[in-house]
Amino acid sequence: MAKGPVWPYNHGMRDSFKTGKTLYGNEIPDSIVRKAERRFNKYAAKFGYDPARSPTLTCVGEGWGFEDFGMRTVRDAASLPPGAGEPFDVDRGMVIGTIRMGFGHSRMAIAIASAARALGYDPYWLDLMSFPGTAARDTIEYLEGLYNLGSRVSQRSKLFNKYVWEYVTSVAAQKLTFSVEEDALSRIFVPLYRDVPKDLPFFSTHPWTGHAAVNAGMGDVVTIIPDNFPLAFHIVEGSHHVAQSPSAYMGYRTLHSMGGPAGLTSSMPASDISLVGHYVDHEIVAGIEGDCEARLRRMRDGRTRRFLLTMGGAGAQVLRFASIARDCKDAIESKKLALFVNMGDHKGRWADLERRFREDGIAWTLHSDWKETRAFIDGAADGDVSGIHVFLHDDFYCAVYATNLLMRVSDVMITKPSELSFYPVPKLFIQRVGRHEAWGAIRGSEIGDGTIETASETGLFRTLKLLTEESDLGELYCANIMRNKKDGIYDGAYNAVKLAAQLRKKG
């Protein structure tokens, strides 16, 4: 694997950027380097960053992720009883870096963990938000708050969405210089990596975790690129990138539209990127035929059509969810249609939606106990379901993973074209939250397992009515999903794990 440039280290972290920096052979203006350093210094000062302060790491088998995938959580030993925890398994271990910002990044991490376990490896979950009192956590929490606010405002204000948020989530993050800025910021996170064995395969599900891993001296870093729209924000020089679609591969390989006014002279080396396919959990891939056959059987038997609504990590779709439930009220009461609504861990957003349900006279059943939720899903696999079922869980893993389980017993998933665009379930795409998500719907419609983006309410409700009362689109999507499986389109998580293992052998 091609490695990034060698930099001096201090307390295990890379020193400040130098002028004359290049990125894949492309010169970066000194003004951008200085801007990146100012941003790093701003947050380092704001949150008390000290490169000499780092937790002592240990690994514990705890929580539902361990029960499902044997996924051990990386923790600060000081937060555990004496003697608790165990070291990394340097022979079979693979580390997955997350920041718990948005559900999509964590969903990719779960897919990698599931595939790693299925292929005989031990996944370790390094969540940078799991270390209270550190500059890393405080920085991420602050920036996540800004992002979530922007996402919610974009769904309430067409002007803000058109002139601000669409730009922020596409053009602003598309320039190659953006990667330099994120690289500089990520030095704040490096102290959390001090005890991670440097030769373990490391999966980065957010560029901050990847930059920090490279800056900490880790050798085999695999950058899991989300979405289908090439953004320099996701580029981590010194890592091996994996993409889910041919268009994303071409975009990153050529650094398409990432130059800005100055233009670019070089591309990303072929040795630094691979096309692997969609990142999907082993359990979902293995169950594709059975799940699609169950959907076709329900359509053929005239049973209640099941639609899954999924709230994103920013909690930005309350108004759209309310309008869908209101429009479908008669169909729900006549048992033509049932709604599964996963609110994630958004208690505040559920309070908003609950108020609108009450105003519209809409009944629902709330599921907030994880064991009860899983029992309901198990029963739905073969049994009948009616009404509206709302899912709300305090535990972040449960909030994310509930959608992965619910999609398997749903006929159609109604979602913004986020990371869920790549999952093998028939999809009705509603309005995106950020311009970068538009290409997720394009990918789904191209391979035939989802609709095009229905941004208008009239288009959404017309398509929803058709999916409820007729069967041709549902049959089309199920047929394409099964064909896509045969073509290996949904094998991205397996392929990423196999690639990481190969890189380690070469290393």
Characterise this structure.
- The chain is α/β, with parallel strands linked by helices and 507 residues long.
- It has two domains: 22-280 and 494-506, Rossmann fold (3-Layer(aba) Sandwich), CATH 3.40.50; 283-486, Rossmann fold (3-Layer(aba) Sandwich).
- Helices cover 44% and strands 14% of the residues.
- It is built from 20 helices and 18 strands.
- The strands form four sheets. It has an eight-stranded mixed β-sheet with strand order 5-6-8-7-9-10-11-12, sandwiched between helices. It has a six-stranded parallel β-sheet with strand order 15-16-14-13-17-18, with helices on both faces.
- The radius of gyration is 22 Å and the shape is globular.
- The N and C termini lie close together (8 Å).
- The model is unreliable at 1-15 (pLDDT under 50).
Strand order of the largest sheet: 5-6-8-7-9-10-11-12
Structural class: alpha/beta
Number of helices: 20
Describe the largest sheet. Answer: 8 strands, mixed
Give the termini separation.
8 Å
What is the strand tally? 18
Count of all domains: 2
Rg over C-alpha atoms, rounded to the nearest angstrom:
22 Å
Report low-confidence residues grouped into runs of 5 or more. Answer: 1-15
Shape call: globular
Q: CATH architecture of the largest domain, please? A: 3-Layer(aba) Sandwich
Proportion of helical residues: 40-55%
Mean pLDDT rating:
90
The percent range for strand residues is: 5-15%
The name of the CATH topology of the largest domain is: Rossmann fold
Return the CATH class of the largest domain.
Alpha Beta
